[in-house]
Amino acid sequence: MADAREAHGGVGTAAGRGRRLQAGVSSHVRAFVRTPINVVLLIALPIVMVEGYGAAMEAFPSLPFIDTAQMVEMGRVNGAIYTVAFFAGVLGLFQVISALQADERLRICGYSRAELFLSRLATVVLGTLVITLVSLGVLWWSTPVEAPLAAFGGLALAGLIYGLIGMLVGAVLPRALEGSLVIVFVVDADDFLSSGMLDLDAAILNAFPLHFPHKLFRDAVFEGSVPTGDVAGGVVYLVVVLAVVSVLYTRLTGEGGVAG
Amino acid sequence: MSRSRLGSGRLATAFEMGLREYARTPVLLALLFFLPAYFVGIFVYVLPASEVPITIPGTGRTLVATIEVYGVLLIPMMAALIGGLAGLFVMLTAQEADGRLVVAGYRPVHLVLGRYALIAIAGLVAVGVSLAVLAIEFVPERVGWVVVASLLLALTYGMLGTLSGLVLSRLAGVYTMLMLPMIDVFFFQNPMVEEYHWIAAYLPAHGVIEVATDAGFTSGVALDPLLGSLAYFVLAALLATGAFYRSLRV
Predict the structure, then answer these.
(1) Which residues of A touch B196 (CB under 8 A)?
(2) Residue A202: which domain range?
(3) Residue B179 sits at the chain A interface (C-beta within 8 Å)
(4) Distance between CA B97 and CA B40 in Å, rounded?
(5) Rounded to 5 degrees, what are φ and ψ at A11?
(6) How many structural domains are present in chain A?
(7) Complex ipTM value
(8) Model-level pTM?
């Protein structure tokens, strides 16, 4: 009997684990799209933010550290990266908050912590890639993008880093108001200070999550270049955040979070 | 006991219960103090010692230090962010309990006013902490008017937060309340622009930022723009209160 279950992809086999992961991801995705306003926002937010940033920057005066000929485009680029980072951060946060109790029940049903973490992570990655595609599409519609693939990579990197940070905040602070406050303050300060719109040279800015993605994205859109140093910096940042989040998430979800 | 005394007693109780809820969540209290301090502090630390041209209402184009421009913008920005989120979550978390209180005899107006007072307290904390941190580098010329203008923006965004929480979903409300203040205050109302975009006049922070900029750099503050902001607040409050009443099905 047990052999028959194994042969058809039972609990312990790779096929069984794959199916459980797929079931987890599809249920999280269904939970998101079940609220139509979430789907509307997925399309509307990038349009409003990318075009809104562009319109707002149009009236800025000539500043010595910004090429004024590209002011509107610079605004749109910042709108795109802000939208992706912010959407992914909040998605990561709410994925974890809504998961804490349900995941504990699934643990009792036999899901491992790693499977639960992977299913949440896969949902965040999927959401990040969708919002990245939409945001890049909105940007590309009005602004020429010199290196589209590299631009997609830079934008997705921003989203993935913030998706993970959102999950981290959700694991440590599993409350909607407190978690949202942390995400917004971190993303807003980070996005504005990493945007290239201010003439800054403080070393601390290199440690900001959007430092490398912002530079990569701007270079890809305006220059069509891909600086390898920034790629390496961004990837290392992502790997470090992923390692920290996976350790903390799997530990804290068993305890309901620090503030839970 | 007279009806009015009973009413004010219930209003005070609703407010006190809300305050106790704040006190019962020390993490939230700590964040209300720490996050504005972090946000303003990081700007104070990294902004360059350069000068930028800005438009001061009634004075015209003037060169001022970059930290001073962003200092004036950061106070209302913190108020808008904290006020918006407080409005969104204070109403959403209290919705079920408030419905029961109405059944028990509370008038919705007492509950609404109690909740709005909580939003004002959150806004006031954000403004106070931000001003204290900013004082390391810059103190606005007329601090009192900067506080009044920022508090008005906190309340306006609080109403918009309440409205979006009740009309949209929680997640959609968070997205709206977190993005709108940033683009409104930092970009559309930025006094560095030579000519405001036409959309700027229709956004919540328009009059508030004009008054805050005026109060930041001059001693004589023209208060006319606050009238428009006040009207914006009243309209947002009416809509939010209507949505709240509807959610209670009274």
Answers:
(1) 59
(2) 22-252
(3) yes
(4) 36
(5) -55, -45
(6) 1
(7) 0.70
(8) 0.80
